[in-house]
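Appendix B, example 12.
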Amino acid sequence: MNTNQRTDILFICMGNICRSPLAENVFRHKARSRGVLRFFDIDSAGIGHWHIGEEPDPRARDVAQDHGVAVTGTGRQVKRRDFARFDYLICMDEDNRQDILDRGAPEEKVHLLLDFLPDAPMVEVPDPYDGGRDGFELVYKLVDAACETLLDTLLDRHVIERDARPSE
């Protein structure tokens, strides 16, 4: 990527109301805070159709808000055209990853979010949907840490000139 191009990232979970909108909005918040949002197009989607058009889960919104991150958006389902449009298809768990690979997603674009978190305490971001606030808090912490290192990785991997990045 050069400084005139954007990197398109799609975060994917099962229903697109908990983990993936949380990751989308946390990543956007981090990129905006660092002054590099213009380099990214960020979205989220779900494997299933159950929550199309719904707002993110109130528990996800509440936990994120407690950490200063607004979670917005509406649920949508992953489409085959997303595989061509997005540069990175970031899945929350192995089932999501396998599902989009089975649908024809190019393997080189597909990643697990926690692959970007060195020394992650687990391999997958657990689905908090059937649990309580503690599960959403754990998911937030995992997503927050992984999005930080994902952003670092993408900024370092691509040719975003150092002078185009804000001073640290």
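The radius of gyration is 15 Å. The domain at 7-160 is CATH 3.40.50.2300 (Rossmann fold).
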